[in-house]
Amino acid sequence: MFEMENKLRSEAEQQAHEHSCKLLLNCYIRELALEKENDIRINSNTLTYAVAFQASGVTVTGRLSYYSAMGEHEYLSMESGGEAVHYGDLVRWITCELSGDGAQGASSDQHGMKKSVMEMKRSLELENVHPLDQNTYHVEAAYAKDFAQKVDNSVGNLTLYIEQAAGLDIHDYCTSEQSLLYGHPFHPFPKNTKGFSKQDVQKYSPELRTSFQLCYIAVRQDVYVQEWVDDEAVMDLHDLLRSHVEPILKEKSEMYGLLPVHPWQYAYISRLTEVQSYLRDEKLILLGSAGPIVYPTSSVRTVYVPEWNCNIKLSLNMQITNMIRTNSAEQMHRTLDASRYVRQHGCFGAEPNTHIAYETGVATCAFENEELTSLFTIAYRPIEFDVEHTYVLSSLVEAPLPGMRSRLMTMLGGGRDIAERWLERYLACSLLPIVRAAGEKGIHFEAHLQNTLVTLKDGLPVEFIVRDLEGVSVDEELISEQDRAASDLLFYSGEKAWARTSYYFIVNHLGSLIHAMARDVNVSEEHFWKQVREVLVDELERTGNAYVQHLLTTDAFLAKQNLVSCLRGISQTPAYVPVSNVMKRMGSEVRGSRGIQG
Questions:
Q1: 289 by DSSP, 3-state: which?
Q2: Does the pTM of the predicted model rise above 0.85?
Q3: Beta carbons of 106 and 545 less than 8 angstroms apart
Q4: In terms of DSSP bridges, do strands 460-467 and 354-357 run parallel, antiparallel, or are they unpaired?
Q5: Are residues 424 and 555 in the same domain?
Q6: Which of 322, 383, 385, 476 is 20 to 30 A from 4, alpha carbon to alpha carbon?
Q7: Residue 556 lies in a domain
Q8: Do 140 and 231 belong together in one domain?
Q9: Considering only CA atoms, which of 504, 494, 505 is closest in space to residue 427?
């Protein structure tokens, strides 16, 4: 990695700074490559690059250690004017660039991509697909300041994680949940936890292999609400926590339901004026910490409870990356509606090696103030997979330290041949079932790396698991009237639902998985994308699936503009940018009469 002039307090801090430079530059290049075509130069043959920030009058140059077809470049050096670049410099230059005029029209060789983007915008009903011929960027000072603070927070946390946890191995489900040190490769501040103090970070960060007891609140039955997908799914916390609860509630025990709460959230809500009123009226009773030890997972707010064999998705009223992580009523309705719909329609019934980790219940308080209610709302997700041999994908694709091999390839211990065999097995239980569910049942998943797990036997995939059903979408053209009456929160046009699948699984998931494998065995990413393409061609010839044809023939997929959206303050409704389809570039026309225009 590139040397830095600044006197850094430790090797870990240097690595965190360098990684953040990589994130910022890769985000900028992906998100601005078309609009700033004349300012961004990357030579895949010489492994050199130059990125000009015209508004600041500087150019960042250097060498790549690995060129990525999907834009996840690895950097050997990064400098400007003969001096090493600091991540703070990039924050300042990027902010200045996006605040200035700097817009450029599409050049002649961009027109095909531009046409594709505009067609996607119309068909997917996305308002924030970025147009290429006008400057829509406007960065307010408050957003710029907030952006810089979050990058600083993320870098500080990453430094701590590298110092304390980079040497820890992963050997089961729990340790994989607690090993996502670096986070999203296309986010400007993936490890931001704005709201946690330094002490909170030490106590509650999964990256530091923390564990703790949850706190509990007794909620009087007239304001307690719970909903389960069926009677068999119900968790009786009174029974599980009887020895702690009965001495406090005594004869009132049956008058209350129990809510598990994250310790940080417990302290936060206990101080709220409105909650104080409910406490005086005994609508709420604080029970303190109790019960089994839990382990925070990669999402920070969801915890793993081995003793109860489940995950609990808790609310945290703080920013993790760039979103407040509370559970709204709509999100929870979507989640349970998705669980019911997917189960009733036997989504992966014909796929013996593909499974879903369902949310089976939700519990909360029935307050008039919906924002207050969201602070208490939680969801239960039972664990039905082999916890000794199952791993979160996002942890497998990471390298413990920059320059090292990914954990996956370290586990496999081989080169290209074993990587090809692994990917073949993996695509059979992940990609193919996902496109079949979309084509045959109209069910689409947000199956990004952090929402998916793989069970390994002798290092090879034997089961693929999708979780967090809040992101499920269903093609409205493939539903019955009875289904529509059950819930309309899930239903979208087929094109819009498919946009989620293609971004989260193809761009986010396969893009980073293939990057890690290709980099580690020293081949181009196209090598493994060719393998993906061959699998899809076979599937298309067998089934004629329109979504498979789309994957093979569309010019580009849409990817979130995380950097731009954060700077503009539109993270809730992010902008999108086209990412060139590697499989289309390498492929010829494929057969199939039905298709989705891309």
A1: strand
A2: yes
A3: no
A4: parallel
A5: yes
A6: 322
A7: yes
A8: no
A9: 505
Structure token digits, residue 112: 């095909």
How many domains is the chain partitioned into structurally? 3
- Residue where one domain finishes, among candidates 332, 361, 382: 382
Neighbours of 566 (CB within 10 A): 24
Residues 20 and 168 both lie in one domain: yes
Q: How many Cβ atoms sit within 10 Å of the Cβ of residue 485? A: 9
Asked whether the beta carbons of 397 and 169 are under 8 A apart, the reply is no
In a domain, 362, yes or no: yes
Chain segment 109-130, per-residue pLDDT in tens: 344 455 555 555 544 444 455 5
Average pLDDT over residues 351-360: 97
d(C-alpha 267, C-alpha 325), whole Å: 16
Tokens for 396, please give them: 């497998």
Q: Which tokens go with 120? A: 């996607």
Q: Residue 502 is which amino acid? A: S
Q: Which residues contact 306 (CB under 8 A, 6 or more apart)?
A: 174, 292, 293, 295, 387
Where a domain ends, among 362, 382, 402?
382
Residue 202 lies in a domain: no
Residues 334 and 418 grouped into a single domain: no
State the Cα torsion 564-568-572-576 to the nearest 10°. -30
What residues have CB less than 8 Å from 56, skipping those under 6 apart? 92, 93, 96, 97
Q: Between β-strands 491-492 and 473-475, what pairing exists: parallel, antiparallel or unpaired?
A: parallel
Residues 413 and 536 in one domain: yes
Residue type, 203: K
| pLDDT tens per residue, range 213-262 | 999 999 999 999 999 998 888 999 999 999 999 999 999 999 999 999 99
Query: What ranges in 100-236 are assigned the alpha helix state H?
Result: 111-124, 141-165, 173-177, 198-204
Query: DSSP string covering 519-574, please?
Result: HHHT--HHHHHHHHHHHHHHHHHHH--HHHHHHHH-SEEEEE-HHHHHHHT-TTS-
Helix, strand, or coil here: 188? coil
Same domain, yes or no: 431 and 578: yes
Rounded to the nearest 10 degrees, the angle between the axes of helix 416-429 and helix 511-521 is 170
Residue with tokens 């494929």: 590
